[in-house]
Amino acid sequence: MKIMFRKETLMRIPAVLLTVPLTYAGFLHAPPIRCINDMQDENAYYKSLTDGITVETHSGSAEQSVPELQQIDMQYSLEAEYMNIPGGAVIDTLRKGYHGRGYVTYLPEHTDQALQFDLMIPFTQHYAVSVSVAADCSTVNAVSVNNKRVAEFEIDDRENFTLVTFHGIFLEQGDATVAIDTIDGNLDVDFLQIQADNPPAQDAFQISETPCNPDASPEAVSLYQAIRSQWGSKMLTGQYASDGTNRELRMLYQHTGQFPAIRFSALGSGDNRQIIEDAAQWHLNMNGIVGLMWFWNAPGSDSVYAKDTDFVLYDAIIGTDPEQLARMTPEEADRAVESGHLHAGARALLRDIDALARDLTVLRDLHIPVLWRPLHEAGGGWYWWGSGSVSYQMLWKLLYYRLSRYHGLNNLIWVWNGQSKSYLVPESTYDIASADIYLQPGVRFGSRYEVFQSLASLTNRRKMLAVSECGSLPQTGQMMLDQSVWSFFGLWYGDYLIKPDGTFSDRYYSSSDLYILYNSDRTLTLNDFLSICQ
């Protein structure tokens, strides 16, 4: 059984050029070194971003209020056979292990609220909502609460009923509905159970006051501490950009009057030098936070996908000591390969990392800190670095030690995005744990409490947590209720924000949702972040 939240991963993210005339932020100790080629003056950058845009107004917009929680222990169940059974469905007793006098089967396919449970909620608080289900074949269906889809779930062919649970569902006192939305159908439903499920307090986290790298640069330490100071109370805004037209950030400004605190771009999606230059200009001209990820093509190939390459990471790196390998000079690595003491694949990994380091050095020398997210989504298995947890962990260590100790790139704040317990790397090699969360149109993001709490448990509540990619917008009121305030989010580009014709896309959320998020007291836009760092 699995609960699904993501999309097919998108690729190729050219960088964007963007600046705004703002006072230099105090979260950097060193003054900016303006040596990037062809830099324009700040006013010209700001004009290029805002010229011709009329900021839309959103009268009557208001963010979600936070009601008082009661936190009372309780539990009860409702049998499916006593609900309003839809046409075509029947009550059956053939499958063993059911409760009550039977279970409901033959639900109509592709039907919202194919089976609805009407509840009376006694207390305003969080609940775990569970459904007991079975199927004769693998099937995907969904659960909705008060007409809002919570998540899809998949169960395999199984003879016995299994309990599928959705944690942290906030319900206010009074009437409520929980419904099975059929997608594939082929589902037998026995009963629904609701139980008090109050979230742990977010202030119970024990997060280090300094980055994992003991030699972290002053600017990296300052940025890390500034982000940490907002943990549990405010979330930083972030946006991915598709190209140098700045259209995503122009769109944000048009609909919110704000710019994101973090500008995300991807190395490996174009000319790395140009991407680095764009990132530097963003920071030097408007003091925004730089976020970088890396689409690392497998050595000897032009693809990041495991299916497109015959490079075997395990063969290349197994049997090596990542720390020792990270200390090797290129000449020493060449000799080790020639003598048969090092796999040629390991030498190829070093070459790629060293080439990357030459690009990143530009940002280091400009004293620009970077939210650095390499080797992302490893647990999904679609990228070559996610071909096995043991080899992934060794590659992560090699990358961390090579960049930080060998190349001295101490301006990096390391974001781990492995998204799987088996791919978790040592605590001493990363600062922030993140998840990529993509939902189907019509599914509200809420707080994604279940992902937050899973990641919190995985990291022993010792790291800040972030949504490194998403296709819909987090809801700040729900995050506060759920004690699940993410450190930052990064909205993906494309139709998650802009339609192909260049107009605003409302497929995943409304313009009003965007305005509320960017003008909330619970989020930090660029101006907000700079104001707290002066």
Describe this structure in words.
The chain is of the alpha/beta class and 534 residues long. The protein has two domains: 2-30 and 201-533, Glycosidases (TIM Barrel), CATH 3.20.20.80; 75-196, Sandwich (Jelly Rolls), CATH 2.60.120. 26% of the residues lie in helices and 24% in strands. The chain has helices at 42-50, 218-229, 247-256, 272-286, 313-317, 322-327, 330-338, 344-365, 389-406, 449-458, 476-481, 511-518, 526-533, and strands spanning 2-4, 75-79, 90-92, 103-105, 111-121, 125-135, 139-145, 148-155, 158-171, 174-182, 188-196, 235-236, 238-240, 262-267, 289-294, 370-373, 412-416, 432-437, 464-470, 489-491, 523-524. An eight-stranded parallel beta sheet has the order 13-14-15-16-17-18-19-20. Strands 1-8-7-10-5 form a five-stranded antiparallel beta sheet, with no helix packed on it. Helix 4 (272-286) packs parallel to helix 8 and helix 7 (330-338) packs antiparallel against helix 8 (344-365). It is globular. The two termini are 49 Å apart. The model is unreliable at 1-39 (pLDDT under 50).
